[in-house]
Structure formats: C-alpha cells, structure tokens
Amino acid sequence: MDYRRKEPTANLRTYYTIFLQIAVIAVLLIFIVATKIEFQSSQQNVNLVEEQEVLEMEEVIQTDQEEIPAPPPKPQVPVEVPNDEIIEDQEINLDADMNLNDPLDMPPPPDEEEEEEEDFFMAVEEMPKIKGGQEWLYDNVEYPERARKSNIEGRVTVQFIVTENGKVEDPKVIRGIGGGCDQAALEVIKKAEFTPGRQRGKPVRVKMSQPIVFRLTN
C-alpha cells in the first residue's frame, strides 16, 4: 500500500485558508487602486449659470421747477357813504306793563267783498244776432266829421251784454281809435236790437263784442 497520499504535505485542504486570505488581499488592493483613479466624463461641461439680462438705467435729469408767484390781491374799491349822518340808537322801553290776560287790540278784519256770480254766458248754442244784420249797423253809424278831417281810420271794438229780451246792456269800448269814432260806435250799438241768445232752447244773457270799421271813401 502507498501511504504517501495520506501525508499532510500531500493534503490540499491545508492550503484553502492561505488561498482565501490571498484572494481577499488582492480584492482590497484592486478596490483601493480603483478609488484613486480619476474618471473623466465624456460629456462636455454644461454651463448651468444663465446669463442675466443687463438692465441699463437711464439717467434722470433733475429739472428745476419755476415757482410762479401768486397774483397780487385786488385793491378794495372804496364804497361811497351817502352822508356823514350818525344814526342814533333808538331806545326801546321794555318797562311798560303788559297784562297777558287782557284781550289784544287787533284791527278788525277787512270786509270780504262777495264776488258777484256771473249771470251771463260767453258762448251759447245760439249766439245773439243784430236785427237787420251788418247792413243796418253800417247804415246807422255816423262817421264823425272830426275823424274825417283828421283822416282817422280803423276798427273800434265794443263789448256789451245782450239780455233775454234782446236789449243791449253795459256797452263799453275795449279798443278805440279816437277822433269821435269810439262814441259813434257806442251810440249805434245802444240803438241796435238783437235776437236773444239761446241755451237749450231758453233765452239767456250773453256777453259778446262787436267790431265796427271806420273807413274813408273817396
């Protein structure tokens, strides 16, 4: 039998620990060397700093403001005094005895005049008419000689009331031309007779006006 295989020198197990320690030392050396090597990046360096916009400040020119002086006050206009009379202070006597229980002396109230109610119409269903018409009126009016000589022409308006009986009442000139024509117009109106005015079939008093024209003829 060969007893050399069982010798301790021939057993490889005894070298495991040595190989293991050598491997660990080799790995540590490699790691230490790798950390010391500087790796350069293949990428280009990127400038991360943004360019700031440069703001140009305009120079402000300071201007001097001219102070405008205030306008001078207007001179006072002297007021004329009517006279140099000194008004004396009036003395009011407050020592007079006044009894509040006595009735006050008040002036009597003015008499109120009762307004007369109008007893006539200004417009009715059937207005009064001159008997004989306008022809009778101008046939009976007399042209004053004074007006003829003065060449006075124009229109005279007479206002009056026609009663229920057709009579003329309260005639008066409301527009005249003078020269005697106003009086001549009143006279012819006083002589005129009218058919009375009617309201709802009944004769009533009516206030009306009548123009009379004075015109010279050659």
From TrEMBL:
The chain crosses the membrane at residues 12-34. The keyword Transport applies. The keyword Protein transport applies. It comes from the Bacteria. Gene3D superfamilies: 3.30.1150.10. Keywords: Cell inner membrane, Cell membrane, Membrane, Protein transport, Transmembrane, Transmembrane helix, Transport. Residues 128-218 form the TonB C-terminal domain. It is a single-pass membrane protein. This is Energy transducer TonB. Pfam families: TonB_C (PF03544). It is found in: Cell inner membrane.
